[in-house]
Design goal:
By secondary structure, this protein is mainly α. It has 10 helices and no strands. Its EC number is 3.3.2.2.
Length: 257
């Protein structure tokens, strides 16, 4: 099992741009009721930095490029959603963009292992979330919010199902990815609070902290996405043939005695 120190030493330098852009966002901290091009750029830069991290890590290690591309695509749709949520009147478009991003994440993580009990818990949370906001939901979001909630919690289910506590399958990156998915869901809950129930104290700080933590956790999933080395069929057949020939010779020698 790889230690936390080893993981940090390996990926830390590649995450420096993310933490720098994150610091800039929170230092400048343009209020969400003041939409501007600068606010859009500052909000999206940390996610772009995570995309760069994934690209650098994939090129320098044996990371599965297909998996990495899917995670990048999910993050880019999230980035578009970020930009949409800044501007009034584009909330529905932002939700749709995040929905597509989550579907890509689900496709990337797959459904093995299934871990159905975790899925049941996640869907129960989705239903409770929808019921909590239902009195305030109107128009197209009457369909959009339930659909988005199910997709979001399916993503959480798939990242949580990857966490295996047996010694041979445990990794810190899988745990961080799980926590990232949960953090993303928490962020979206507070987005719903802000949108449907009105702003609350420290709303932007809470929403963005949990959101960036969620995307960071999902980005770290590439640490476990190794390319599986295919079996060399010719070599395998040759070894089998050689083994069979040897066994035959030994049998003949034994019978001749």
């Amino acid at each position: 099992m790889t230690s936390v120190a080893q993981v940090i030493k390996s990926v830390g330098p590649k995450l420096v741009p993310f933490f720098k852009t994150l610091a800039i966002y929170f230092v400048v901290f343009i209020p969400q009721d003041q939409p501007s091009l600068l606010a859009t750029v500052l909000k999206c830069l940390p996610i772009i930095s995570l995309v760069v991290f994934i690209i650098l890590h994939t090129k320098s290690t044996g990371t599965d490029p297909r998996f990495a591309k899917l995670i990048i695509a999910g993050m880019l749709f999230g980035c578009v959603g970020d930009a949409c949520l800044i501007w009034p009147g584009y909330f529905d478009t932002g939700v749709l963009s995040f929905l597509i991003g989550h579907l890509i994440y689900i496709y990337a993580f797959g459904f093995k292992p299934l871990n159905l009990p975790v899925g049941i818990v996640c869907y129960a949370c989705a239903i409770m979330g929808v019921l909590f906001f239902w009195p305030d939901i109107q128009d197209v979001l009457l369909v959009g919010v339930p659909v988005y909630s199910i997709v979001l919690m399916t993503m959480v289910w798939r990242v949580a199902a990857r966490v295996q506590f047996s010694e041979d399958q445990w990794t810190w990156s899988k745990l961080w990815t799980c926590l990232g998915g949960i953090s993303f869901a928490v962020s979206d809950f507070f987005v719903g609070m802000d949108h449907f129930r009105g702003s609350f104290e420290y709303d932007q700080l809470i929403i963005m902290t949990t959101y960036y933590g969620g995307q960071l956790g999902l980005a770290l999933s590439v640490l476990d996405a190794k390319i599986e080395t295919p079996v060399n069929l010719k070599s395998h057949k040759h070894q089998c043939s050689k083994s069979t020939t040897t066994d035959s010779k030994q049998t003949l020698m034994a019978s001749s005695k």
